[in-house]
Amino acid sequence: MNARQLEIFRAIMRTGSVTDAARVLNVSQPTVSKVLLHMESQLGLKLFSRARGRLTPTPEAQLLFPDADRVFRDLAALRQLVNDLRAGDGGSIRIAASSSLAETVVPRALTRFRREHPRTKISSHLLPAAETAEMVRARAVDLGLTLSPLSDQTLHVATIGQCNMVAVMPVGHHLEHHSRITPRDLVDESLISFSSDTHFGRLLDEAFVSSGVTRQVAVEATMSSVAVAHVAAGGGVALVDRFATMFAPTGLVWRPFHPTVNLSVTLIESPNHVPSRLTRWLIEDLRHCVGILDASV
């Protein structure tokens, strides 16, 4: 059966007559009769016996109906999905992001996105930058977002914003009155920061060297959120990206770090994957939220 025959067969089975099936389908009775006769001829099966203007399903029709009904509902669901996708609704998007981006930019962008596309299924992952890139490479996610640059030729990367590093400390800390924090200010502090073998760590090492001091890290953290948590617990002063200050608990303050250490917000896509319209719209929301947050932090 083709889709039209399937629809008419189902309607006759459910209503019990050609007339009622035609009314339900909003077509003429001769059209339904013609399709039914052609369908029986094509299948080589008699589907209905006719008596007193009513149709009685044959045993063959009774056997066909459950599967025919299931296929019809599957086709209806497929049509609805196509309509949803055409309208920019439905479907699914998977995104992975590193540390503070996963806790600031991504939630806000997804909230903005879902106002227009509430039926889209979202999968959001917080991962280190390297694993985020690997997830995109393996097509386990559609998009990746990191604060670390990538030079991988197998991926498509684009800068969609900037932020810089700041110093986070408890309220009442003796450095709170400083308008900015320098490497020399941190020489005698318990510094919570990133390892020198990370992108963030290497940039900070260069900043300290340019100020004539060596960066001594008391507690190494792999994520900004972890570093902020150590500060909240009284562990010292942390150097993190500015986005991290947005989820810092009460009782903490931040100050600009000088010399300025700039970080690029990097969007990662697979170069061989054509993004859906939903994905393109989400990218625009990510760009928007990066700009708003960078300006407001």
Automatic annotation (TrEMBL):
InterPro entries assigned: LysR_HTH_N, LysR_subst-bd, WH-like_DNA-bd_sf, WH_DNA-bd_sf
Presence of keyword DNA-binding: yes
SUPFAM superfamilies membership: Periplasmic binding protein-like II, Winged helix' DNA-binding domain
One Gene Ontology term of the molecular function aspect: DNA-binding transcription factor activity
Domain HTH lysR-type span(s) in chain numbering: 1-58
Keyword Nuclease: no
Alphabetical GO biological process terms: positive regulation of gene expression
Keywords tagged on the record: DNA-binding, Transcription, Transcription regulation
Superkingdom assignment: Bacteria
Chain coiled-coil ranges: none
PROSITE patterns with a match to the protein in the record: HTH_LYSR
One family name in Pfam for this protein: HTH_1
Homology family: Belongs to the LysR transcriptional regulatory family.
Protein's name in the database: LysR family transcriptional regulator
Provenance organism: Acuticoccus sediminis
Classification lineage: Bacteria, Pseudomonadati, Pseudomonadota, Alphaproteobacteria, Hyphomicrobiales
